[in-house]
C-alpha cells in the first residue's frame, strides 16, 4: 500500500499491468521497478529508490550480524552430524550445491563459490535450527509444509513463476544450471519433461519439475521439497533460500543465457 500511494491510480496499463494496485504488488515483490510507471514523479522516485537501498542494506547486514553472533554461541562440532556436515580445524563444513562451504566458530564463512546475502542468512539459520531429521524421499509442495498455505501465493510469485520464465526463455541454460550446481536428473519425475533434484543444503533438497509447452498447452514448473523440510529448516528459511536461488539463477541467465530463438 505504501507503493500504491505513490501512484496516480489511473489504471492506464502502460506498465503492462491491469491495475495500479497490481503494479504496486509487483514492485513490492521485486518483480518490477517503480520507474516503469510513466506518471511517477522523478523526485519521489529518487527518494523511494534511495530509501529502499538503505533499508535493504541495513536489514541484510543486521540479519547476518545477529546470525553470526548466534553462531559464536553454537557448538559447531556437536552440530556437524545434525546438519549433515563435518567439523575439522575449528570449522563446520557442509555441502552447498555439492561444494564445500565452511563456517568458523567466530562466524566467518569460507567458500570457493560466491554466496550472496540472500542465501548466506538462510544457511546460517539452517545450521542453528536444523533438527537433523532424516530425509523421507517423499516430495511435497510448499503449501503442504507447516504454515505454507498462508505464504504459498508469495512463494509462487517469487520462486516458481520467475524460475519458469528462465526455463521458457533459456531452455538449454536451465539444464546447464542444474549441471553447474550438481543437480541430479530424475527420469519420469511427475511425468515432466525435466525433473531434477538440487541440494542447496544437505538436509534440504529441492526438486524442480518442468513441463515444456506443447500442443497449445502452456509450460509449467513446480518446486517440491522433502516432507522433512519444515523440521530441518524454518518455513521462512525454506522460502528465502528458494527465492535466493532463483535470484541467483536470474542473474546468471541474464549474463550468460542465449534465448532459444537466437540460437535457431
Largest sheet: 5 strands, antiparallel
Number of helices: 10
Q: Could you tell me the mean pLDDT? A: 84
Cα(first) to Cα(last) distance is 44 Å
The H-and-E topology, N to C, reads as HHHHEEEEHEHHEEEEHHH
Spatial extent as radius of gyration: 20 Å
Low-confidence stretches: 54-59, 260-264
Strand content: 15-25%
Strand order, sheet with most strands:
5-9-8-7-6
Shape: globular
Classify the secondary structure makeup into a structural class. Answer: alpha+beta
Helical content, roughly? 40-55%
In total, the number of strands is 9
Structural description of this entry:
It is a single chain. With 264 residues, the protein is an alpha+beta fold. It is built from 10 helices and 9 strands. It has helices spanning 2-5, 20-28, 42-73, 76-83, 117-129, 148-169, 171-180, 229-232, 235-256, 260-263, and strands spanning 86-88, 91-96, 99-104, 109-111, 139-141, 184-185, 194-201, 204-211, 220-226. The strands form 2 sheets. A 5-stranded antiparallel sheet has the order 5-9-8-7-6. A hairpin with a 2-residue loop joins strand 7 and strand 8 (204-211). Helix 3 runs parallel beside helix 5. It is globular, with a radius of gyration of 20 Å. Residues 54-59 and 260-264 have low confidence and may be disordered.
Amino acid at each position: 500500500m505504501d507503493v500504491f500511494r505513490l501512484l496516480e491510480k489511473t489504471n492506464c496499463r502502460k506498465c503492462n499491468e491491469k491495475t495500479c494496485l497490481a503494479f504496486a504488488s509487483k514492485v513490492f515483490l521485486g518483480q518490477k521497478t517503480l520507474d516503469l510507471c510513466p506518471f511517477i514523479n522523478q523526485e519521489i522516485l529518487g527518494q523511494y529508490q534511495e530509501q529502499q537501498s538503505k533499508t535493504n542494506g541495513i536489514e541484510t547486514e543486521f540479519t547476518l550480524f545477529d546470525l553470526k553472533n548466534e553462531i559464536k554461541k553454537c557448538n559447531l562440532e556437536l552440530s556437524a552430524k545434525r546438519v549433515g556436515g563435518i567439523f575439522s580445524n575449528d570449522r563446520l563444513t557442509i555441502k552447498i550445491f555439492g561444494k564445500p562451504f565452511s563456517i568458523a566458530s567466530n562466524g566467518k564463512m569460507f567458500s570457493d563459490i560466491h554466496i550472496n546475502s540472500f542465501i548466506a542468512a538462510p544457511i546460517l539459520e539452517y545450521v542453528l535450527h536444523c533438527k537433523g531429521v532424516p530425509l523421507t524421499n517423499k516430495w511435497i509442495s510448499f503449501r503442504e509444509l507447516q504454515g505454507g498455505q498462508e505464504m504459498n501465493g508469495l512463494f509462487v510469485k517469487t520462486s516458481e513463476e520467475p524460475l519458469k520464465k528462465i526455463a521458457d526463455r533459456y531452455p538449454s541454460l536451465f539444464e546447464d544450471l542444474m549441471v553447474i550446481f550438481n543437480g541430479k536428473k530424475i527420469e519420469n519425475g511427475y511425468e515432466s519433461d525435466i525433473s531434477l533434484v538440487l541440494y542447496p543444503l544437505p538436509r534440504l533438497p529441492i526438486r524442480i519439475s518442468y513441463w515444456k509447452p506443447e500442443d497449445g498447452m502452456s509450460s509449467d514448473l513446480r518446486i517440491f521439497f522433502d516432507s522433512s523440510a519444515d523440521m530441518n529448516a524454518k518455513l521462512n528459511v525454506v522460502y528465502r533460500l528458494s527465492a535466493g536461488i532463483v535470484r541467483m539463477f536470474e542473474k546468471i541467465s541474464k549474463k550468460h543465457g542465449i534465448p532459444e530463438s537466437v540460437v535457431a
